[in-house]
Records
---
Amino acid sequence: MTRLISDDEGHASALAELDRLLDLDPRPDSPEADELQLLALVIEIYEQRRWPIPLPDPVDAILFVMDQQGLTRRDLQRCLGSRSRVSEVLSRKRSLSLRMVRALHKEFGIPFEVLVQETGRAA
């Protein structure tokens, strides 16, 4: 029976049990498959709490999307405004406005919670 994980020892035990269940290769809708799904969820919740992954900096997220989608600074102009505004945002000299956040989210799918964070200042 799956239990909540409260420490690293319990996490190790849960991972071992997950491996055991995976080795069984249970058929869908079997009790073992249900147990495997539940155990995976419990492990995921523990790992998210134990080792949270911080959200990326807004500018880093924009640069990542540019890289992944092959975008140029010119492509950002429709969301951020002028060429100088794009430069100011990417150099962290200007914060994103609400209008910019909405446009970047709509156009490129960057999550709101990433874009509304305070931008780290360049050294």
---
Amino acid sequence: MNINELAENLGLEPDEYLEILELLADSGKADIASLEEAIAANDAEGVVRAAHSLKGASANLGLTELSETAKDMEFKAREQDFNGIAEKMRVLKAKFAPVVELFHTSSP
């Protein structure tokens, strides 16, 4: 993840981008927890809500792979299609992990 490039693409300074990215890290953790709960309960509407939230936030920050994965999950849930959703969840968590790790490694 190239913070300088992502920030520049949005017309932000790297430190400004990191502040916003940290908000995504926090809200994204909640969205992922909601997704896991919704998937476990076969709650399509819950998956749609959480995936939509994560899709929009990550798209706004230029994290297209994360956004696309969330979008895929959202559309599968809209179709009530849970086939393969666990694998999509695994991919989503893998794409989200660098965002979270960025702030864990920078903390004292």
---
Amino acid sequence: MIRIPASFRSSACAVLALAGTVPLALAGDPGFRAQRTDLDAAQMKRVEEVTRPTTDFSRAETYEAMESGAATSIAPVTDDAFSQPSANLGLEGEQNFHLGNALFRKLWISAPSSTQASDGLGPLYNARSCQSCHLRDGRGHPPENDTSAISMVLRLARPAATPEEAEAIKTHVALNFPDPVYGTQLQDVAVPGLAAEGNVSVRYKEETVTLAGGETVRLRKPDYTIKNLGYGPLGADTTLSPRIAQPMIGLGLIEAIADADILAHADPDDRDGDGIRGRAAIVRDHLSGKVALGRFGWKAQSATIRDQAATALATDIGISNPDRPNAYGDCTDREPACLAMPTGVQKRLGDTEAPGPILDLITVYSQNLAVPARRKASFPETLRGKRVFYESGCIACHTPKYVTRRDAAEAQSFQLIWPYSDFLLHDMGDGLADGQAVGMASGRDWRTPPLWGIGLTETVSGRISFLHDGRARTLTEAILWHGGEAEKTRNAFASLPKDDRDALIAFLESL
């Protein structure tokens, strides 16, 4: 018997429940879409029918193999599987995609330089290009044996220290506050003539978990430290949060999911009594000043792809852009040597190191990286694993499917997609806690990551690193780290017969 979670109510009903989900003042904000207005009644009914979780596991669902609808890539599976354009882009769209791809891979250099429009790196930074972190547009990994942490960053933050700062967080003006010396992120590289901020070191302590049937799994818990701090000690209340780069596929489609369809699964007061308390991450768009639904980043701290791109350019690479115009990136006033370095701003090109068209094209590229088609969606082992996935309660957070908004960009408009995420915040327990609050997310909260493409992680990235800090080396390890709201589901998995566990993993590997 498959129990459909109570959160899978219709979008229309979800709107009626908003009072317990989102502050009423925000639900009425013109920047916050609390209702679907892009569909008529007949279309809404059809969408509700199509997105209802299946109870038939005898065959694959219609269009299930095309995980991102008409945008799905059917290119041969290689290590470039995550770097394909949406299949339904027109000629102009493809041209802009490839221009954005070139900029995504662009290696920035320190200023001043004879190379036009390529300088301005840093002065403190983590990577020289977007592609350096998102290698082949895939998942990052933690440093091993004190090697480079290029595809993982260490976020730095402290809680509010004054009533004014607490109010800024409450009203979504701020997410948290930077370390007074090192800013929002540890920069482990610097331009010539400048000292880096420090280096990340990780050590693991392992423990053995025994599953039903006697199978054992070794879990590794990381301990992060910073070596060679270049500018003095960290603040006493600064928290460290390691974050590996996330896959870039399907982002435009995630952005095109209606707010109301995500809110339909929120249940912060656990009204249905299932122990799952998904909460919407409400953020404030720094350009419009309006509140919006956070859906990107490990703690759902960004509402749009453009904001993600602008912040990464400025913070990870140190490249100013129209949305983040500080040419010194994450340098603070406690780092005067950094603030004394030259920048790459060239007045003939504008007031920032990356002019508007660069940010526009990187955003277009990020919006249109295709999700690869499913493999083995109809195989008996996959279907068995899908049934186990549903019966174990995984879909309470990993919502299987949505139909995107009709008023989205053409390539993302009205597509049936299968991301397997509710894009909400969940308490994942002490084992995964980083102790760092980000806006509405506590130090135990994480956004449910989408699962599409997860089976191609090793193919694309050359290694397997799951969870926010890459500690899990297998999908089984990743599941066993689930705690908090997901502990019941984790225990259900651990108690399954080995054949059922293997089938569930086979299902995930097909995504």
---
Amino acid sequence: MKRMGFVIGIDPDRIAEYKRVHADVWPGVLERLRKSNITNYSIFLRQPENLMFSYWEYTGDDFETDNAAIAADPTTRDWWKICGPMQEPLATRAEGEWWAPMEEVFHLD
């Protein structure tokens, strides 16, 4: 199992909407995440900085393939069309990234 964390900004005027849609995530989106070995997934919000931190545990053995399956999923792509405009990716993210990955520097087991 690998713990993974990511960060992104959010449009402060759309926080309530973001919370609303995430209170009822589409079942197809959740199923695709599960099929791609993503578990224990959480998103946290930090205000007033308007940053979101996501955390999940990856239990598979080929993240690139599993992540590509998520990106290719039509239901997930439709979900991203709703959520993407609410998010504000960090200017410092690498090319091709949306949520910027974070380095794990500590873990208490």
